[in-house]
Specification:
Elements lengths: L11 H7 E4 L12 H12 L3 H14 L15 H15 L3 E5 L7 H14 L4 E5 L12 E5 L2 E6 L1 H5 L2 H6 L6 H8 L10 H18 L1
Helix pairs in contact: 2-3, 2-4, 3-4, 4-5
């Protein structure tokens, strides 16, 4: 296996420069007394110049929507904010690839929205590998790799997965509520990603039906 063309067994330093990992428990990623120090921690280990470090830390904190939190103590933050601090630490190091291990599993609904919103904004500039049991977190993914018993059983688009009842059933995957309702109503589950879109599609179909009469 290679990561960005490098072998982790023989070139671990090169791999670490290009791969950042975000774990499910945000507490595991916080090591410093203040937010800005935590975000700078990885850069200090890499020996980054002080001025460059300040610039990269500020940019990363802004990217996750935490400007003004620089001197906050991480233990005073919400779960979603803590996870965003951990994400900022990764972004400051500048990895090409972000590997996310159930990054929202320990967050409440508000925290999940915070983190997923920031990750969505990063898709244009990073390769993101997102491991999750929640299919609603993958509706905008380019590809979904379905694992069962440690084996890869499918490599499909969200549209293909959400429309394949047999694949979902065989792998004990549950469609998000909006997509499940869309499927039951005979609408496209992949295109109707929010309750608002589903409502508009239902109203449009009802209007077409009324016009036909």
């Amino acid at each position: 296996m290679r990561v960005a063309g490098y072998d982790p067994a023989t070139e671990p330093y090169e791999v670490r420069k290009r791969l950042g990992i975000l774990f499910q428990n945000p507490e595991n990623g916080l090591v410093a007394p203040f937010v800005e120090d935590d975000v700078a921690f990885g850069l200090e280990n890499l020996g980054v110049d002080r001025e460059e470090m300040r610039a990269r830390v500020a940019e990363a904190i802004e990217a996750v929507g935490l400007s003004g939190y620089e001197r906050r103590e991480p233990h005073t933050l919400s779960g979603g904010e803590k996870q965003r601090v951990a994400l900022a630490g990764l972004l400051a190091a500048g990895p090409e690839i972000l590997a996310l291990d159930e990054p929202t599993s320990m967050l409440d609904a508000a925290g999940r929205r915070e983190v997923l919103g920031r990750l969505q904004a990063l898709r244009a500039t990073r390769t993101i590998l997102h491991a999750t049991h929640h299919l609603e977190e993958l509706v905008d993914a380019d590809r979904i790799l379905v694992l069962n018993g440690g084996n890869l059983v499918s490599d499909v688009t969200p549209a293909r997965l959400f429309s394949d009842a047999e694949l979902l059933r065989e792998n004990r995957l549950v469609l998000p509520t909006v997509q499940r309702l869309a499927l039951e109503l005979g609408l496209s589950p992949a295109e109707l990603r929010t309750p608002e879109r589903l409502a508009r599609a239902v109203l449009a179909r009802a209007a077409r039906g009324a016009g036909a009469r």
